[in-house]
Amino acid sequence: MYSPTIILEALVNGLMLGAVYALIALGLTLIYGVLHIVNFAHGALLTVSMYLVWIGCEYFGLDPYVAILFVTPAMFAIGYFLQRLVIGPASRGSDNGILLVTLGLSIVIQNLLLAGFNSDTRTIVTDYAFGVIPLGPLLLSQPRVIGLAVSVVTAGLLWLVLNRTDIGKAIRAVAKEKLGASLVGIDVAHVYAMTFAIGTACLAIAGGLLMPSFYVSPTTGAAFVLVAFTIVVLGGMGSIPGALIGGLLIGVVEAASSLFLGDSLGQIGIFLIFILVLLFKPTGLFGAR
């Protein structure tokens, strides 16, 4: 049996990792809340973000956290133009069309990455990758502490954008009533693209936070986006507070499962929660009927 200190330490580290999971889920739930579709390209775009951070470190000597400052605007632009020039026109306004287009994008991006980088895994070597920060009797992972802090700041900035800016008000208006928003002069196509871009920019930040302690390969994003889907369902589709709380909860559950069942079975608890939520509360913790 593990000592209380080891258990508490594992749960706190899991909570901090859950904050990064929440950041990935934030982009997913924001896109769903406005466009009302599930973005199947989310995992592939996360992989692109992680590769861009790796390139910044490998070829330009950037620290992964500094690389976030350059990768985020790049991914924002990629997200905007993907929605405006590919997803929107190709789907022809059909929700089913958008689903198929994002699924096709996911396959294309993954195969392009496979062609460009092969199936080899890439990692970033940093001085602090295995660093710890003592907190009383607890030893907390330094990258996860940084990940928690950056995720909280990012969530706060996203809240300010959605509630205190004109584009945020437009996003909320389109999410509430698309036809009414267009009748008062809001460019719905632009709002869709901006929403997709913001969701993609969240992936750039998450990718930079993950790289010091994880590897990247062409299929890496799929594993993280499965967890993100679980968080979105747990918190409620389209609910930003639900994504935040759901991410923290899933991080703790994964840490507890890994501690007691082993790392190879660590995600059993996550998908057990996923099944239970679908069975007993399909709208999630904060989802509307």
Written account of the structure:
There is one protein chain. The chain is mainly α and 289 residues long. The chain has one domain: ABC transporter involved in vitamin B12 uptake, BtuC (Orthogonal Bundle). The chain has helices at 4-35, 42-60, 64-91, 95-117, 142-164, 166-176, 178-183, 188-210, 220-235, 240-261, 268-280; strands at 132-135, 138-141. A two-stranded antiparallel ribbon has the order 1-2. Helix 2 packs across helix 9. It is globular. The N and C termini lie far apart (43 Å). It holds the Pfam family BPD_transp_2. InterPro entries: ABC_transp_permease, BCAA_transport_permease.
Relevant terms:
289 residues, mainly alpha, ABC transporter involved in vitamin B12 uptake, BtuC, two-stranded antiparallel ribbon, 11 helices, globular
